[in-house]
Amino acid sequence: MALFKQNNSIQVFGVKEIQNMFSKLPKSIRNGEGKAWNAFWKENSKPMQKQAQLNANEISNKSKRGTGRLGRSIGFFTTKDSRKAMGGYLGPRVKGRFAKKTSDAKATGKNRNKLYGKSGFYGAWVEFGSKIKFGGRGLGQDQPFMQPAFEATKDIVNANARRDAQKVMEKLIKRHAKRTEKFGILGR
């Protein structure tokens, strides 16, 4: 499997072998292959996630007001479109458990019941500070944390792809066997 980046898009070669591996699973296990691919990408992106968290925490430690919030918010997540493409995203999370509900009267608009207290909503400003204006006021300083993580771990991710696909398949088969034993074939 080979992975390279060109024009802000990532090309992956060797996916056909993994796709063949997942297609051999029974339909009741792979569930349209979406769950298998989601589990695969989540497992396969762990080294990159750890490196990005380390990079973000390093940036936070250098800052006087650093909280480490950005590093804690980095993780794998999916959206409706990424699930259609059998993929996902790795980066700062904003929604879900990272959205802190509050009854603050100052919060207005669509998110008046949520203040993103634990989220990494500002991750793009940290990564691309010289290209994104802060509230229309001015540009900041680039402090990339995702790009260096990608560059440092792309070879590891490539090397682990087949092993991670095998690990995901084993988990799915084991879960299927356990559920079949508990509920029977017709009780699913």
Concise structural overview:
This protein is 50% helix and 12% strand. It is mainly alpha-helical.
Number of helices: 8
Structural class, by secondary structure, is mainly alpha
Strand content is: 5-15%
Helix content: 40-55%
| Largest β-sheet summary | 2 strands, antiparallel
CA-based shape: elongated
Query: Could you tell me the radius of gyration in angstroms?
Result: 20 Å
How do the helices and strands follow one another from N- to C-terminus?
Answer: EEHHHHHEHEEEHH
Distance between the termini: 35 Å
Spatial order of the strands forming the largest sheet: 1-2
Number of DSSP E strands:
6
Describe this structure in words.
With 188 residues, this protein is mostly helical. The chain has one domain (32-178). It has 8 helices and 6 strands, in the order ββαααααβαβββαα. The chain has helices at 15-23, 27-30, 34-44, 46-62, 69-73, 80-84, 123-127, 146-183, and strands at 2-6, 9-13, 74-77, 89-92, 100-101, 114-115. The protein has a two-stranded antiparallel ribbon. It has a two-stranded antiparallel sheet with strand order 3-4. A hairpin with a 2-residue loop joins β1 and β2 (9-13). α3 (34-44) crosses α8 and α4 (46-62) crosses α8 (146-183). It is elongated, with a radius of gyration of 20 Å. 18% of the residues are buried. The mean pLDDT is 75.
What is the strand and helix layout of this fold?
Elements: E1 2-6, E2 9-13, H1 15-23, H2 27-30, H3 34-44, H4 46-62, H5 69-73, E3 74-77, H6 80-84, E4 89-92, E5 100-101, E6 114-115, H7 123-127, H8 146-183
Antiparallel strand pairs: 1-2, 3-4, 5-6
Helix pairs in contact: 3-8, 4-8
